[in-house]
Task: structure prediction
Amino acid sequence: MKRYHFKTDEQSDVKGVRLADLAAVKCEAGKVAASILCAAADEVWQRCEWTVTVTDDFGVKVLELRIVATEGPAAA
Result:
């Protein structure tokens, strides 16, 4: 299994996570994003756009999950 590192503008996973395949990497990226959304919801919505970038042990980008947060007029 390869080791993958998950990074955002604010945080970087130095230790990494060993995952079996690309499907597992995508699932883990979704979990990272969901965790951030729940833990810092107000901050995420203020920034409007942010990413979770996944790299391998060599620093090569494997995938990027881009999140765009918008509020409708009813939220004001």
User: Anything to note?
Assistant: Strands lie at 2-7, 17-19, 49-56, 61-68. The chain is about 35% helix and 35% strand. The chain has one domain: 2-75.
